[in-house]
Amino acid sequence: MKNEKYQPAEFELQVLGVLWEHGPSTVREVLERLPDGKPRAYTSVLSVMQVMQKKGLLSAKRQKDGPANVYSPKKSREQIAGPMMKSLVSRVFGGDPALAVQQLLSGTNAAAEDVDAIRQFLDEFEGKLPETKTRRKP
Predict the structure, then answer these.
(1) CB of 70 within 8 A of CB of 24?
(2) What angle do CA 108, 15, 98 make, to 5 degrees?
(3) Considering the domain boundaries, does residue 68 fall inside one?
(4) C-alpha distances in angstroms, 107 versus 50, 95, 101?
(5) In 10 A of CB 59, how many CB atoms?
(6) Greater confidence, 37 or 138?
(7) H helices within the chain, ranges in order?
(8) What is the rounded distance in angstroms from the CA atom of residue 97 to the CA atom of residue 39?
């Protein structure tokens, strides 16, 4: 992507989400898996994905046994979401990641497994912090 600060539009994020979750897919497969459930024409999704390819968000390969292209994301979820999340935390939460996490957890139906996964991530993250940073006590 030429403009590294480019943020994909909402629908482009949905397409990327499908590809990150399910791997390389045809336009038809993406269309069937879009999370918002809105009825869309195949040609509309195809057009968006072709534009995403031109922007450098997707790559396409011709299927060996058919005429359809198989699309893959050229950027990882972390490469796209990282800058977007950093910007959101900066703009909405004054740069405080703790407030952002509190808001996220209070606004969702997080299951016990989700909380356990978050706790495990935080423990691993804390272990990577430089010794000069203040660590919470067990």
Answers:
(1) yes
(2) 30
(3) yes
(4) 35, 19, 10
(5) 14
(6) 37
(7) 10-22, 27-33, 42-55, 77-93, 97-106, 112-128
(8) 36
pLDDT at 18: 97
- To the question of pTM greater than 0.70 for the whole model, the response is yes
| Phi, psi values for residue 125, rounded to 5° | -65, -45
Q: How far is CA 85 from CA 82, 88, 100, 122, in A?
A: 5, 5, 9, 17
Q: What residue has token string 């994020």?
A: 13
- Domain of residue 57: give its range: 10-73
Can you say whether the dihedral through the CA atoms of 73, 39, 63, 47 is positive or negative?
negative
* In a domain? residue 34: yes
Position 1 scores a pLDDT of 45
Instruction: Count other C-beta atoms under 10 Å from residue 135's C-beta.
Output: 9
Give bridge partners of residue 73 from the DSSP assignment.
Answer: 58
**14 and 69 housed in the same domain:** yes
Structure token digits, residue 26: 């045809």
